[in-house]
Specification:
This protein is α/β, with parallel strands linked by helices and 127 residues long. 44% of the residues lie in helices and 17% in strands. The chain has a single domain, classed as Response regulator (Rossmann fold). It is globular and about 30 Å long. This is Response regulator. Keywords: Phosphoprotein.
């Protein structure tokens, strides 16, 4: 199954180091068009200005969490179908269930490697 690595990807995390790590993993997989945002509010503004083929967002952020971002993305006709992967350090069952109900496409628990990320992306946008 092939992944279209030419699509623009938005990485949302309030921790710059994590953005760098995810950016590097995406680069290893073959993605080159990667934007980032420090929180859900910034991510929404970027998503209004540009269409992304994939959003990879952390769950725990201030002032808008990744979960709140996901709910905004799914409620907007422009962004409703954007593939969305949630990244979190917690594997709480209730969080996974809440994210699924809100329309997340996939879920990754930290720490993870390029192979895990690739498999999750492939499951979401592979053709």
């Amino acid at each position: 199954m092939a992944i279209d690595t030419s699509i623009p990807v938005l990485v949302v995390d309030d921790y710059q180091t994590m953005i760098r790590i995810i950016r590097n993993l995406l680069k290893q997989i073959g993605f080159s068009d990667v934007d980032d945002a420090a929180d859900g509010t910034e991510a929404l503004a970027k998503m209004k200005a540009r269409r992304y083929g994939l959003v990879i967002s952390d769950w725990n952020m201030e002032p808008m969490t990744g979960y709140e971002l996901l709910k905004h993305v799914r409620a907007d006709d422009e962004t409703r179908t954007t593939p969305f992967i949630m990244v979190t350090a917690e594997s709480k069952t209730e969080n996974v269930i809440a994210a699924k109900k809100a329309g997340v496409n996939n879920y990754i628990v930290k720490p993870f490697n390029a192979e895990t990320l690739k498999n999750k992306i492939q499951a979401v946008i592979g053709s």
